[in-house]
Design a protein that fits this description.
With 449 residues, this protein is of the alpha/beta class. The protein has eleven helices and 25 strands. The relative contact order is 0.11.
Length: 449
């Protein structure tokens, strides 16, 4: 059996490792455009801020690792054409230019995503960078040594993380974000306002509700024209999101409206010989019980594992995702899972949100810290749809617990009374998540019919 894997970042690496672990006799061939695999792009901001000392530490596997497992891995090779009906692919060696044909019995598409490049004039100028992969990271890191004023276009996770890192390293930072509030995919507007306040308190100049239209540049500066004004900086970094890289299979496999691949619970595409995982694929999103495009490393690794488990026999079904994530911002942790209130209502839920701010442990302890919490739920069923937490106390694992609640379709009543440990070192007799859920229960009890 010959398995060909196209792409080898998170999903491709995970799939290859699992296939060769459980089926070591399989002939596994991997084609990857870049000269590296498994780069964790979340390390870019950590490196800029000095938390991580080397970008090379952001690789958790190498081509040599996969070769030692038995894979035939070809980096800097581009699969530029695919014929699913013939199980045939055309490949180009990007170093020599040689082109050749290969075939497969089973195919794994792990082609990933590409940055959304806004239709902006001047986006390819020398002082305008994109933030995605290892090559981008090295350019951004090198520019940080010589550029003083950085303009960041985009207010998602990457944009906010870069703004924090640059502001912590004595850079002047301007963050331009239009169309949607900061981190709108993850938090509602009141949390977005808190994050904006924290960014501004650390010197980040915020230009919200402004849309970048064009760039101009000279040898030293970049000029950003928005719908409201023009700004000068030494460098602009564009990070406005990602789109699935599925052009290779357009017209051959079933795609969702956003261009992402549709897969079943065993990671099979519409062709039974083709599996897919990672940023090219829509996840099964449990809060809405539908496909959703959620490009996260956690999803990619899990999906890659499932491909490896199911490629020869349907063994383990995907249980879906809640898109749980966290962000470290100036000593605080922002963690979220599931739907925000705005997105829940957009999806047709009669949704409400319970809000609570409380210290995580008793006041008689030497110190304690407040946690700002939100719980989004469906008023018709009381099912939990989402949660958001923001605090100087590390509440990341609490978002994981809320994720399990959403996955298991738990209600606010169940969360209110779920058994949790008590120790004054860690929490109150009633854990702060119990209290948050009780706030939702009481809110519904007193709501008008």
């Amino acid at each position: 059996m010959k398995v060909v894997i196209i792409g080898c970042t998170h999903a491709g690496t995970s799939a290859a490792q699992q296939i060769l672990k459980t089926h070591p006799a399989t002939e596994v061939t991997i084609y990857e455009r870049h000269d590296n695999i498994s780069f964790l792009s979340c390390g870019i901001s950590l490196y800029l801020g000095g938390t991580v000392k080397s970008l090379d530490d952001m690789f958790y596997a190498t081509p040599q690792d996969l070769a030692q497992l038995g894979a035939h891995i070809y980096t800097q090779h581009d699969v530029y054409q695919l014929d699913v009906g013939k199980k045939q692919l055309l490949v180009e060696n990007l170093i020599t230019g040689r082109k050749f044909v290969d075939h497969y019995d089973k195919l794994v598409l792990a082609t990933g995503s590409v940055p959304v490049i806004p239709p902006l004039q001047g986006v390819s100028l020398p002082n305008v960078l994109i933030c995605k992969d290892y090559a981008d990271a090295t350019r951004i890191a090198a520019s940080a040594q010589v550029k003083k004023h950085i303009a960041i276009i985009g207010g998602g996770y990457i944009g906010v993380e870069l703004a924090e890192s640059y502001s912590n390293t004595a850079h002047q930072v301007t963050l331009i974000n239009g169309l949607h509030p900061l981190l709108s995919h993850y938090v509602d507007t009141d949390f977005a306002a808190q994050i904006a306040t924290d960014l501004a308190a650390h010197g980040v100049e915020l230009k919200l509700n402004e849309t970048a239209l064009k760039f101009d540049s000279d040898a030293q500066h970049v000029y950003i024209q928005t719908n409201k004004a023009e700004y000068q900086a030494d460098l602009a970094v564009v990070c406005v999101g990602f789109r699935p890289q599925t052009d290779l299979v357009a017209g051959q496999l079933t795609l969702n409206q956003d261009g992402s691949l549709h897969v079943d619970r065993y990671m099979r595409t519409s062709d039974p010989a083709v599996f897919a995982a990672g940023d090219a694929v829509a996840v099964h999103y449990n809060p809405t019980q539908s496909d959703a495009y959620t490009p996260l490393a956690t999803n990619a690794v899990r999906q890659g594992l499932l491909v490896g488990m199911n490629i020869f026999r349907s063994t383990l079904a995907d249980i879906g995702t809640q898109a749980t994530s966290a962000l470290h911002l100036y000593g605080k942790t922002l963690a979220s899972t599931g739907l925000t209130l705005a997105r829940a209502q957009k999806h047709g839920f009669d949704a409400a949100v319970a809000k609570l701010t409380d210290n995580y442990r008793p006041e008689f302890m030497p110190t304690t810290t407040p946690i700002d919490m939100r719980l989004v739920y469906d008023r018709a069923t009381h099912r939990i749809l989402g949660g958001q937490l923001y605090s100087q106390y590390d509440i990341a694992q609490s978002a994981n617990l809320l994720s399990v609640c959403i996955q298991n379709k738990n209600t606010i009543e169940q969360l209110a009374f779920v058994d949790m440990l008590f120790s004054p070192y860690y929490d109150r007799p009633l854990n702060y998540l119990n209290q948050l859920a009780l706030t939702a229960v009481e809110q519904e009890a007193t709501a008008k019919p």
